[in-house]
TrEMBL record:
Record-listed E.C. numbers: 1.14.14.16
GO terms assigned for molecular function: heme binding; iron ion binding; steroid 17-alpha-monooxygenase activity; steroid 21-monooxygenase activity; steroid binding
Protein name, per record: Steroid 21-hydroxylase
GO CC term (a single one): endoplasmic reticulum membrane
Family under the similarity heading: Belongs to the cytochrome P450 family.
A Pfam short name: p450
Family annotation (PANTHER family): STEROID 17-ALPHA-HYDROXYLASE/17,20 LYASE, STEROID 21-HYDROXYLASE ISOFORM X1
Cofactor: heme b; heme
Membrane topology listed for this record: Peripheral membrane protein
Chain sites annotated for binding heme: 427
Subcellular location field: Endoplasmic reticulum membrane; Microsome membrane
GO biological process: hormone biosynthetic process; progesterone metabolic process; steroid biosynthetic process
Native source species: Echeneis naucrates
Length: 487
């Protein structure tokens, strides 16, 4: 089987076959005990998994210790698992280290799919919805204007903008969560970022994942794990202080997520729902939003600028569209339907460099099947979104940066674009992320032209560094103010 998927009558038939009769999943040869650990030690897993798909098909397995992982590499098989059979695959792996970083899985992102998670998810989702309608646009506009001022102050000098993008994205979340924003130099902000970044980086390291695959290793000293525990304690202290300060304020309101969550908690616990949500759920939801909403959006902004340096004519077309449609004013999110070239730019960068290229791992809650293969309960499912976005069966010239593929007649397929995942575990911040990427990009491209620093002939390296978030290596750029910039 060249594609690794079955279609037509064979597929329908195989879904009813007992497990022993269904074909066994392809995959690289696995060595006793260590299994396919070698494949998991690759420095850029999304690219490596995508290359393995060319050999083993769009669905294959890897083994490590007692864990079987199934890697899904096309939007068709990903949607079969996450949308069509969502109730079979909505779980998260129950790992020791996930428990440690998530107060025993009381986060949305690492919580397993059960009654408690559903109640928690409903609470956070409705708090976000409320902020989306009441304050999100204003919050993002303020950050966009602030970013504009910072870029003006650089006076067209060559700079690395990554920290400014991180501060803007983080301020959107802290404004939503606590009604607070920070300056780049604020020690409070630096402490928060360094601790969240450390947690994500340490948790993604093989020193930590080895503890999940080989439980015996937990008996030995592990300095990396020790550092992780210290950072988690630091993180919890910072968030606890924020929540304490928030509760001590006179002016508590439902405009902030924390206010909406606390109000929702009271309401929820006064109904007879059978699950008790506590302050820990509010605490961990804040962690989810800060981790989920900062580096993802910041890295997308870095990628957008980098890709534009590779094709300056795309930047010119977006600028001309902004001038024609907006006639000098700043954009609103409702303008997006009239700005197709800008939207195609954002979609193409989300396709080529999805911020969470391997999504988050899922777990089969019960025996099921994908593409005709039997998938036993507790199998870990990895949706390779990066691979799906580079599938040559769907995308013409998949590795090229061609935003025009999403425009009329360009041959693109937004249906196969899944940077936020799909189904029951769809990214909780998708609406926030989309509005933020749109407004920040529109504000910046309206007022600045991004160019390479003088004497630098080659644009930034686009391979990226893959951990949980796919980031670009740091690079410098000049933000040259456009001639007429005031509204
Ligand atoms: C989960 C992508 C921004 C909060 C996810 C997942 C992906 C993703 C692929 C995993 C879906 C799965 O498990 O199948 C992105 C991208 C972003 C972004 C590409 C920006 C461009 C945000 C923002 C927030 C956020 C701004 C918060 C405001 C979350 C949370 C989850 C999640 C809480 C866990 C959902 C669950 O487990 O059910 N995101 N995300 N993300 N994201 Fe995002």
């Amino acid at each position: 089987k060249s594609s690794g998927t079955q279609s037509g009558p064979l597929q329908s038939l195989s879904q009813f076959l007992p497990c022993s009769s269904s074909p066994s999943l392809p995959g690289p040869p696995s060595l006793f005990i260590i299994g396919n650990m070698k494949e998991l030690a690759h420095d850029h897993l999304p690219i490596h998994f995508t290359n393995l798909a060319r050999r083993y098909g769009n669905i294959y397995q890897l083994k490590c210790g007692n864990t079987t992982m199934v890697i899904l590499n096309s939007s068709e098989v990903i949607k079969e698992a996450l949308v069509k059979k969502w109730s079979d695959f909505a779980g998260r792996p129950i790992s020791y280290t996930a428990g440690v970083v998530s107060a025993e899985r009381r986060t949305i992102s690492l919580g397993d799919y059960n009654e408690e998670w559903r109640a928690h998810h409903r609470l956070v989702h409705s708090a976000l919805q409320r902020c989306f309608h009441q304050s999100l646009h204003d919050v993002i506009e303020r950050q966009a204007l602030h970013l504009r001022k910072i870029l003006m102050d650089y006076e067209a000098n060559a700079v690395d903008l990554s920290e400014d993008f991180t501060v803007a994205a983080s301020n959107v979340i802290t404004s939503l969560a606590f009604g607070k924003e920070y300056d780049k130099s604020s020690p409070e902000l630096q402490q928060l970022h360094s601790c969240l970044n450390e947690i994500v980086a340490l948790w993604g390291s093989s020193w930590i994942s080895a503890l999940d695959f080989f439980p015996i290793l937990r008996k030995f000293p592990n300095p990396v794990f020790h550092r992780l525990l210290k950072e988690v304690a630091k993180r919890d202290e910072i968030i606890k202080q924020h929540l304490k300060n928030y509760k001590a304020q006179d002016k508590k309101n439902g405009d902030t997520i924390t206010g909406a969550l606390l109000q929702g908690l009271e309401k929820y616990n006064n109904t007879d729902e059978g699950v008790l949500l506590t302050d820990t759920h509010v605490h961990m939801a804040t962690v989810d939003l800060l981790i989920g909403g900062t580096e993802t959006n910041a890295s997308m902004m870095n990628w957008i600028v980098a890709f534009l340096l590779h094709r300056p004519e795309v930047q010119t077309r977006v600028y001309e569209e902004l001038c024609t449609v907006l006639e000098g004013r700043y954009p609103k999110y409702s303008d997006r339907h009239r700005l197709p070239i800008l939207c195609s730019l954002i979609d193409e960068v989300l396709r080529l460099r999805p911020a969470a290229p391997l999504a988050l791992p899922h777990r089969a809650i019960r025996d099921s099947s994908i593409a005709g293969y039997f998938i036993p309960k507790d199998t870990v499912i990895i949706p390779n979104l990066f691979g799906a976005h580079h599938d040559p069966a769907v995308w013409t010239d998949p590795y090229s940066f061609r935003p025009e593929r999403f425009l009329e007649g360009g041959g693109g397929s937004t249906r196969a674009l899944i940077p936020f995942g799909a189904g029951a575990r769809l990214c909780l911040g998708e609406a926030v992320a989309k509005m933020e990427l749109f407004l920040l990009t529109a504000y910046l491209l309206r007022d600045f032209q991004f160019v390479l620093p003088e004497g630098k002939s080659s644009p930034p390296d686009l391979r990226g560094v893959a951990s949980v978030v796919l980031k670009i290596k740091s690079y410098e750029v000049i933000a040259r103010p456009r001639p007429v910039t005031s509204p």
